[in-house]
Amino acid sequence: MNVTAKPLVIGSVRLAAPVVLAPMAGVCDAPYRVIAHGYGAALVCTEMVSDKGLLYNNVHTEEMLHIEPGEHPVSMQIFGSEPETMAKAAARVEAAGADIVDINMGCPVKKVVSNGEGSALMRDLPRAEAIIRAVVHAVSIPVTVKMRTGWNEAEFTAPELAKRAEAAGAAAVAVHGRTREQFYSGHADWSKIAAVVQAVSIPVIGNGDIADGPSAGRMLAETGCSGVMIGRGAQGNPWVFREVTRYLQDGTILPPPSAAEKYRQLLAHFQALVAYKGAYTGLREMRSHASWYTKGLPGSAALRERLNRAESVAAFVAIVEAQLEQAVDR
Ligand SMILES: Cc1cc2nc3c(=O)[nH]c(=O)nc-3n(C[C@H](O)[C@H](O)[C@H](O)COP(=O)(O)O)c2cc1C
User: Fold this and answer.
1) Domain DUS-like FMN-binding, which positions (predicted)?
2) What is the per-residue DSSP string for 259-280?
């Protein structure tokens, strides 16, 4: 299989490799984005940010605008249902220093779609296009759109939405090969991503079920897309970016990280999270990351339980350091 990857250019932003960290709420905060960037994610995406949260000065949403120097280029994702508020939010995102503004048209969550946001926009293409047009006019950075294939099997609207996005001035689209009704079940249908590639001239970034170099290579080869976006495969696994980038360069399959490497990275991630969000939040938010980092390691269930009970930074660090010592001795 030919895995030679071409450079991915999104408007004025040229990526070092066609390999992107997917936006993930609760995962892609600034500390994780810096880590993913360090392992080779050529573009990192933020958690989704509400347009209204930004405009009405919600403190939590304000914090989400923070970008670390070590994570560029970064794409900041906004969601909403009204062209005017989305345009204003996009201007805030540009002022915050984002390199790209991405519009969420794929979120399947009921609370979001019942407001006409996220994947609900795949059923209202004129409104979707008006939002994209308004955002493009409001900023000077490239605008991208992230979508699913459609609302359900019967409504395969992604090619039409992608065409409208292109007409409205979007620089690229990312397509997750599932419908809204699927949420995360079943498989991503990559043939639908291929159909979107056929429909437009702007770059299409393929997303859904990429776990390693070979699956990234297959996504590029089977769909003709211009880049790959990785979500769940990167949870507790920033190494996936190094593996995929290398595989796409020369077909080399790098060995997976050792247990010791995983514990070291878990510790570094924890320390960055505590420095960024404080001990209380850092300890709590690290629990899910820790369970992803340690998945499949010997004794991981018992370890997770102890980490979940750790009530101080020192206690958490001591538990991981003890594991690390054992892993190094082994
Ligand atoms: C925990 C979690 C949070 C997510 N949050 C977002 C989000 O904020 N915005 C978005 O566009 N997609 C979000 N997604 C969807 C992912 O970006 C991606 O499209 C999906 O997980 C499929 O890719 P994967 O198979 O590589 O995980 C989220 C997915 C997960 C698992």
Assistant:
1) 21-321
2) HHHHHHHHHHHHHHHHHHH-HH
* Catalytic hit among 28, 45, 107, 225: 107
Instruction: Assess if residue 238 is contained within a domain.
Output: yes
- Which of 24, 102, 212, 225 for a ligand 1 pocket mutation test, highest count of atoms within 8 Å of Cβ? 24
Q: Looking at beta carbons, which pairs linking 179-182 to residues 24 or more positions away fall under 8 Å?
A: 179/148, 179/149, 179/150, 179/151, 179/152, 179/153, 179/155, 180/106, 180/108, 180/113, 180/119, 180/120, 180/122, 180/148, 180/150, 180/151, 180/152, 181/108, 181/151, 181/152, 181/153, 182/108
Ligand 1 neighbourhood includes 22 CB (under 6 angstroms)? yes
CATH number at residue 106: 3.20.20.70
Do 243 and 152 belong together in one domain?
yes
107 is catalytic: yes
Neighbouring CB atoms inside 10 A of 277's CB total 18
pLDDT tens per residue across all 330 residues of the chain: 445 567 899 999 999 999 999 999 999 999 999 999 999 999 999 999 999 999 998 888 888 999 999 999 999 999 999 999 999 999 999 999 999 999 999 999 999 999 999 999 999 999 999 999 999 999 999 999 999 999 999 999 999 999 999 999 999 999 999 999 999 999 999 999 999 999 999 999 999 999 999 999 999 999 999 999 999 999 999 999 999 999 999 999 999 999 999 999 999 999 999 999 999 999 999 999 999 999 999 999 999 999 999 999 999 999 999 999 999 766
Domain check: are 39 and 152 in the same one?
Answer: yes
Residue nearest to atom 4 of ligand 1 (CA): 24
Residue 103 alpha carbon to ligand 1 centre in Å: 13
Full-prediction pTM beyond 0.90? Answer: yes
Task: Kindly report the protein residue whose alpha carbon is nearest to atom 1 of ligand 1.
Answer: 24
Ligand 1 within 6 A of CB of 212: no
